[in-house]
Each structure stands twice: as C-alpha cells, then as structure tokens.
Write a structure and sequence with these properties.
About 30% of the residues lie in helices and about 20% in strands. By secondary structure, it is α/β, with parallel strands linked by helices. The strands form 5 sheets. The protein has a 9-stranded mixed beta sheet with strand order 3-2-1-4-5-7-6-8-9, sandwiched between helices. It has a 5-stranded mixed beta sheet with strand order 11-20-16-18-14.
Amino acid sequence: MRSDNIPLDMLTEQKRLGQYFTPPEVAALLVKWATRGPQDRLLDPSCGDGEFLVRHANSTGVDLSEEACVVAGSRAPSADLVHSDFFEWAETTNKRFDAAAGNPPFIRYQLFNGDRRTRALKLCAKAGANISGLTSSWAPFIVASSTLLRPGGSLAFVVPAEIGHASYSFAVLQYLCSHFSHVHIIAIREKIFPELSTDVWLLHTHGFGQKTSSVGFSAHDRFAKVPDNASPQRLIDIRNLRESGGRLRRYLLPPDGLAHYDELSARDGVFALGSLARVGIGYVSGDNSFFHLRPSEATDLGIPKELLRVTIRKGSQLSTSEVTDSEVARWIADDQEVLLLDLNHLEQLPTPVTAYLDSEESRRAMRRYKCRTRKPWYAVPDVSPPDAFLTYMNGVEPSFVLNSAACVCTNSILAVRFLPMTRVDSNCLSRAWGHPLARLSQEIEGHPLGGGMLKLEPREASRVKLPLHSNLKLDLDLLQHSTSVMRSWRHISPSA
C-alpha cells in the first residue's frame, strides 16, 4: 500500500521495483513478532518508506530506491539507512541482526532478471536453498535475510499468497525448516492491500540455527483476527507436505473437509487425471494476427482449405460440454477468426501462400521472437488435435470439453490427450469432471489469480481427482461446503 509520505512521481518506480507499502498495523505486529526488546537489532531488507523502521529504534533499512531511503530516513532518524541493492550488500556486509522484518518486493521472475537475480539465487544456493530460477523476488529476500541473523534470530515478513502453491515455495519452506526451530505461515483471506490483485499472507520464524520437522499453519478471515502472540492452528509434517506437492493451499480447508477429501481420493475408482491422460498446452503461433484468419480472409487470399485448421483460441469458445461439427459450422458461418494457417510438412508452398508470406504482415511476423527462432519460421509447431480441452483461466470453475470436431488449440487452452492404456469412455471422464469431489479437487490443485480467477496449470490439472464409479459414498454437504470455503479464498461468493 502506498504511504502518503511517498511522492506521486515515485509510483512508476515503485511498480518497477515491486514496492507496495505496508499498513501500519501490519508492520507493528510483524516487528512485535520478530523482536524481543529494544536491544534487538532489526533489519528491513527492503525498507521502502520506513514503516517497519519507525516501529523499532535499533534498525537498519536497505533499499534500492534513493528516494525511498530519503523518506525512510526522515521518518526514522535513528535508523541506519543503506541505499543499495540488497543482495549486493548482503554479500559483503559484516553486520548481523537479531531479527529481520519487512515486506519484500514482489517482482515476478519475468522482470526479476539479469545480474540481480543471478546474485540472489547464488546467495540462496550458498545458504542451502536451491530455489528455481522461475522464482519471484520475495523468496530470495527471505532466504538472504536469514543468512544475516545471529543464532536464535527471527523473521517476520509479508509474503504473497503464492507461498501456498507456487512450485518453488516448497524449497523456501524446506530451507526455513532446516534453519529455524519454528516456522509459521499465517493465511489471511481479507485483502491486506485492497488495491492489488495479489493476496498476501504472513511468515514468522524464530530460533535461527536450529531446525524443525513441521510447518505451523493458521488461517484467519481478517487481519484483525490474528492474535498478537500467534500460535499455529495446526502443525504439518514437512514430509507430508512434500508428498502432497509441497502446497500449503490444501490446508485452507477445515480439518474434517480435508480428511474427507484425502479419504475419498485414496479409494478405488478415484484417479488423478494425469494417470488417464496427458495434459499440456496448445501450440504457440508466434503471431496470432498473422497465423489466424477469418474464413472470408482465407477465401480472399486463396489459401487452400487443406492448409487451414479450425482452432480453439480462447475459453469463451468452450461454452458446451463438447465441440461438435455443427458448432464449428456456426463459427465459420459467423466468419470468426478461428482458422489456423498450418504449413507443416509442406515440400512446396502453393502460390497463394507464397504471396501471403511475401506481404508486409509476413515481414512483421517473421521478426517476432518465436517465429525467427524456428525453421522454417512460418511452420507453427505442435499442431495436433487433442481428445479434449480444459479451460486454463476460469471464473467459477474449469470446463472439460470433448473434442469431437478434431479442432486444435492455442496455448491459452489446456490440451488433454488420453493415454493409450486408458480404457475409460470419454463421456465418463466428462461426467467425472463435474462430480463434487472433482470440483473440490480443482480448487485444491488450482491456484487463485486476481479478480477471483482460478488458474489451472497442466501439472495442477493432472493432479485433479476424478471418481469414475458412480457408487462412491461421500458426504455431499461436507464436499460442497469445502468447495465454497476454497472459493471464498479467491473471493468468489458461495452462491456462484
């Protein structure tokens, strides 16, 4: 959250640096958790406007923004301010601290790059945390801060809710458990930063230099309900966490709901989708506006029909349980842009295609990264019809749609291809996807995005549990309640 002390002309710079300034009541609680008394030396590795530093006189703040350091210094004159890249400073400083607290920058891996990411990951690896290069910036901030603690030291940080599901988050949790006597994650359903799409949770550890075999976990509706001296609502064995994919998200469920889900998932006749089918994404064209044509455009260009494939480009096309020939005919009659120019395996290009490839649109397309890095640039790879489609980004729930019209799909859709040994009727799989157990599994295995969206990555979809026998005995009310609980954590109302 932006502090009123920060000038408006810093907003663009804040976004680039991943700075979102912390509500005072949150900063006060985290400093209280981290420090034992005024004598403790506190580090904020990304101090921003100094909201944490003003809570503790014996503090050091580091920030990449010179303007932020000036503001922080004016608000916390007793603090030691360091204008530097934190990872560069952490490599060389001899200072050690009793506690570290703050709200580290949330910069996704696409922008957290170059020398800074290389240095950050090197620091993590040296400390014993082998974090993926696809990590967002917050994770290396947590690990690097811990390396500057004295024995017995503590951490207290705002962290994005992706700590509950991101593929690299388990490596962070595993590292923390091997370096602290207590590790506690506090999930908060209420948005602490209402103006942002990203939800945040809280992290608290203490006892640096020791280890624990479990992660403490608590879930609260609102920040106001988090107790000053928080103790975990449940303890999760790190080995059990690893076996469940390293995802804390499943523990948002009430214990009875999670126990029923796990018991049902282990029954005969319940299968993970990945044991029945291969789930991936569709093709990447490199330039959608060039490779996708309306029927009228293809006719005007003289493109032979055998070089055109009907494609699913977006989830809104998947409005029924099956893509049929009649549905495709309607798209064609409506002159929708659903034809992919497929030039794979051609020894000689027809004259109309050669003319299209000599156009200004073609010269623009061939300069695009995906196009210029493949040979020939105009042959879109991985074009083949799957057996079914899954929606990738979802409002209420993902759709499983059979592909009886042999359409192909772009990478904005999940492509489902049944395994050769699968002897299950496709309609049975489609029905199983809508089963109450599968609906809950989609919520557990998927993850939330802004605006209440549920995203289902291929690996997540592969873990969704499907009951293939209709005689499965279950507590329907408990399953439906559990699904509503999970949806509420992505801010979907129970009536949706």
